[in-house]
Predict the structure of Putative serine/threonine-protein kinase.
Amino acid sequence: MAINRIQNQALHEIVDPTLGYESDPKVKKMINAIGELAFQCLQSSKELRPCMDDVLETLLDIQSDGKHKSKPEVMDISSLADDVVLLNHDPPPLSPDSNL
């Protein structure tokens, strides 16, 4: 059974040899990551399985060799205190230890 081979780190027994699992470290890394994801997806308990958004993010990360970045989180700053100001135009205040 595939899940047993994944658990026992024996993916080489179920992977098509023409994919280069044994000869290409990058391919081996990707297939191992896919195996880990497959193991998570095959859990019998729904709570232990990743949601499809997480599966997609993981697959994109695997495909991009870890360079995939999810969308940046947008923060609503309208509710922040009035004394929070962006320093776009004015330079920051000088340190009391500066020699100017």
